[in-house]
Amino acid sequence: MLFRRHKDKETGKGKQRTGISKYKLSDSLDANVQLFQQIFNDDDTFKVRYFENQQHPQVRCCVLFIECMADNEIINENIIQPIVQNTMLENSGDILSSLQNQVIVSNHVAKTTDIDKLSAAIIRGDTVLFLDGWPVGLMICSKGWASRPIKEPQGERVASGPREGFTESIMVNLTMVRRKLETPDLKMKIMTIGVQTNTKVCVCYVEGIVHRRILDEVYKRLKGINIDGILDAAYINEIIKDSPFSPFNTIGNTERPDIVAAKLLEGHIAVVVDGTPVVLTIPLLFVENFQSNEDYYVNFYFATTNRLLRVMGFIITISVPAVYTALVTFHQEAIPTPLLLSISAARQGVPFPTIVEVILLLLIFEILRETGLRMPYFVGQTLSIIGAIVLGTASVEAKLVSAPIVIVVSITAITGLMIPGIKVAAIFLRFIFLFLSAFIGLYGYIFGVMGFLVYLCQLRSFGVPYMLTLTTLDPGELKDTAVRAPWWYMKLRPKLISANRVRQANGGK
Q1: Out of 53, 126, 183, 486, which residue is the most buried by the measure of CB atoms under 10 Å away?
Q2: pLDDT tens digits for 54-111?
Q3: Considering Cα of 436, then 441, then 445, then 450, what sign does the dihedral take?
Q4: Domain-embedded: residue 18
Q5: What is residue 293's predicted lDDT score, i.e. its pLDDT?
Q6: Which 3 state secondary structure label does DSSP give 271?
Q7: Do 40 and 167 sit in the same domain of this protein?
Q8: Where is 32: in which H helix or E strand?
Q9: H or E segment at 139?
Q10: How many CB atoms lie within 10 A of CB 254?
């Protein structure tokens, strides 16, 4: 029986794991190898290699490794060859220690009798060495799997600034963060999550800046995860986020090391997950959806203009369909007469009410967008452009929709692309405001906006108000919100997030 139930010390929840801990290593090399062959039964990538010392055949060893995970060159040249050719092994009473400290060439070699640790090391790409007559195994670092080269993230391109992005290797990602923050105050705590995947997850923060209350809450939620596998950072995001049914993200994510470094310097916490280029940042504020790392690499006037455009784009994308529907349906007197006549002429012969026209075109746009994402890049881009033009023109000519509706939906779609971080919430709000306006006009839109603001004010991200810095009268808290003040004015970090608010040595507001 290779499976058993055990109690997790941190959460008290039952977890399923391989029950190989009940076995013990013996003095027999063959028995130890047979044990691991049983553990990795029916796995053709699991390899076993026996060998002996040339001058002393009684020094009999065996290495165990997974072929696709380990580097064969490291195993051959740094483990097998030094042991086979060594001439001093007979003079040592503790041969295993001699192998560990004097013979094997590796940056990490550790002894253990724990079967679970030895099995986990093999799965991670390390090599396990057994010596005949010793009930101990050596775990030797020999990882050698292929990884994607460092490139600029496709979804976070910038005109100016660093071009590197995270990869699927956690160690490569941690290295890029460490290169940005060359300080001993940068702490990295690695844990394992996922009963079957045993995924490495690293919590990064800057000591002296991070708020301990938020850090403790992050550890608590991560340790409370009980799931078979973690294949992407989105798994952790969905499990530990505040308000899990909310369309608004309360945990940030990015593929750029410079963004992570900047967040860490403000007191945020980064969660790096092995196997994915996406890094989570905690906590997340609503205003961060309108900020870009490029804002800090260009002139603050230009950065402020771009941020205001993003805010305006968000307001337009959630409001234009609702306001147009309300005006055309209930408040025609608010529309200038020439414009009203133009809209009425365009609607001649259209069989559907305005609300149906808007919903129909919005759904078609979302279908085109999703299709473009799923198709190959060069095909998807062409399909989206041609599909929008052909369908829009044909719909107007066939009198299925009016021309003003095509313009309204086009503006809505374009402005929605300006804020990808809040895309899902924008779609929900767009339809909610639209239905409210279709039933009670502009009053419905106003009530929707009021409810939306109240909802945002009650949201929290790990205890931090989601609307922090936007609901304050302190000018010092507004220097990095919808506007980006010059660096010499941004001397304080956000309150409630960082323990040390002074960003610059001279302090002040």
Answers
A1: 126
A2: 888 888 999 999 988 888 899 999 999 999 988 877 656 788 888 888 889 988 999 9
A3: negative
A4: yes
A5: 86
A6: strand
A7: no
A8: helix 29-39
A9: strand 137-140
A10: 23
Edge-first strand listing for the sheet containing 109-112: 46-52, 60-66, 127-131, 137-140, 109-112
Domain range for 96 is 3-140
Closest CA to 252 of 225, 223, 281, 273: 281
Residue after which a domain boundary falls, among 256, 284, 312:
284
Where do we find the tokens 């810095």? 469
- Give start and end residues of each alpha helix (H) in 337-419: 337-346, 354-374, 377-397, 403-416
Number of H helices, E strands in the chain: 16, 14
Helix (H), strand (E) at residue 464:
strand 464-465
Q: Do 164 and 242 share a structural domain?
A: yes
Question: DSSP letters along 151-219, please?
Answer: ---GGG--SSS------S-HHHHHHHHHHH--STTEEEEEEEE-TTT-EEEEEEEETTTB-HHHHHHHH
C-alpha–C-alpha distance, residues 419 and 239, integer Å: 24
Examine the domain organization and report whether 78 and 193 are in the same domain.
Answer: no
485 belongs to a structural domain: no
**Which residue blocks in 248-376 are alpha helix, DSSP H?**
257-265, 300-329, 337-346, 354-374
What is the pTM assigned to this prediction?
0.82
Whether 355 and 434 have beta carbons less than 8 Å apart is answered as: yes
Across residues 324-344, what is the average pLDDT? 89
- Same structural domain for residues 121 and 233? no
Q: Give the list of residues 6+ apart from residue 410 with CB closer than 8 angstroms, or none.
A: 388, 392
Residues 262 and 159 in one domain: yes
Give the model confidence (pLDDT) of 12-63 as tens digits.
Answer: 444 444 455 567 888 899 999 999 999 998 888 999 999 998 888 888 999 9
> 115 and 62, same structural domain?
yes
Please tell me which of 193-197, 344-348, 479-483 the model is most confident about, judged by mean pLDDT: 193-197
Query: Residue 268 in 3-state DSSP?
Result: coil
How much of the chain is in helix, strand and coil states, percent to nearest 5? Answer: 45, 15, 40
Tokens describing residue 174: 């941690």
Work out the percent of the chain whose per-residue pLDDT is above 90: 43
Residue 235 CB partners (closer than 8 Å, separation 6+): 227, 229
Cα dist. 341→354, 400, 442 in Å?
Answer: 16, 19, 21
The answer to whether 166 and 255 are in contact (CB under 8 A) is: yes
Number of domains in the chain: 3
Q: Which of 151, 124, 128 is nearest to 139 (CA)?
A: 128
**Domain annotation covers residue 147:** no
Residue 31, in any domain of the structure = yes
